[in-house]
From TrEMBL:
Ranges for domain Transposase InsH N-terminal: 17-111
Name the UniProt record assigns to this protein: Transposase
Domain Transposase DDE as annotated: residue spans: 322-435
Highest taxon of the lineage: Bacteria
UniProt xrefs under Pfam families: DDE_Tnp_1_6 (PF13751), DUF772 (PF05598)
Amino acid sequence: MYRPFSKSELKKNRKAYEKMYDKRHLLVQIDKVMDWDYVYSLLKPFYSEDKGRPSLDPLMLVKILIVQYVEGFRSVRFTCKQIDQHITYRWFLGLSMDDSAPCHSSVSKFLRHRIDPKIWEALFEYVLLQIKKEGFLSPETWAADETELKANANKRKRVKVVRKMVEKEDEYVLQLVNKKRLQHGKKPLDPKPPKEVEKEVICSTTDPDAGLSVKHDPRGLFAYHDHRIVDTLHNFILDAYVTSANVPGHRVLIERIERVKQRIGYIPENIVLDAGYYNARLGRELEDTGIHAYVSYRRFHRKEHSKCRSSQFRLVKEDVYVCPCGVKFLYSTSTRSGYHEYKPDVKGSCADCPAANGKGDRVFRVSVHQEVYQQMKKRRLSEKGKVFRLVRPATIERSFAESKELHGLRFARYRGVPYVQIQVWITAMIQNLKKWTKLRSLRSHGIDLSYHK
């Protein structure tokens, strides 16, 4: 049965700590800016009005989780012990002198079984909209990246699973390939029907949702990815989305930008990205959306043709390239994989070349997305691109560092994507609340740092 604290009861309990609690504590500042009536309205549908025994105040359970994530405590059990000993925590929860903190199992069951995980996203969005109303968000530049969270799973508890997947050909790439082939009088390629293939995947028996990552450990470990978008003005988190560790960021970025647009009503003029987002399809979709992407330089580890790299070839006229040794390369064909192939004008020109690796002629390949890559390179080398190269580490990377060092996001506390997503939503909400309370405090002292165009 639903039984919240009444405001008079809360005020009475807090009065006992009036001269003892720390008025400058972050939790006290959070209590001033949060509308707890709105939180009650989110929690009320999960409780019966007239059936069952009286419940613990659901808002108190939410506040216990806020205390845990603000202080970066490792577990709910440890948090409840600290609440019994800390005056400011007790003031924040509204506990009387005679009451003790609720049992840690009640908090855990409330989190996992009582309420819908979407409640935490609603709380995150509520805080973000309040920040937007006060003018602390900027529509000019965002930054996006992903970080790895170690899953709560033993890397040795693994099995190989065969999964069926459907491979589809990229229609846009085939269209570009056939356009080039028709220009040179070649027969266009027919589209391939979708093909069902079987792929062997290594899965965790402990947490099947986690993906195997070899990014930091060559032997592999199970992990999740936190795909995050931040506003570069004050580093507020606009979105934090959890996937398995084998889902790259460039696959979900467009979808997450659209989700942020639904929340706050606009998209940015520019977005700053890591080298992992160096992807032609993503660059094209961002251009179609009207967003200018500034992507860091990606270093490809290629061993072949080390003395004669593709970047050293010059385009002298349409479909004619010249290698560093002066040999002309003419158009040969366009392949289904999305590349135009060029071969030497005279057969055998690469036989005695000092830069050649083998005895045969070099095949020079140019991507069908070469214009997109050139545009990305031009932006990266521009004056604005050089500035944004310094902005990204100071914003998105710092946001990840604070999450891991101060709020316990280095490891996943739960198993399964929905519950790891809860951990990420709460962490992101706490980080936004910290910055919001600080900016409000500065404004009260006459320092207004809101966005002005």
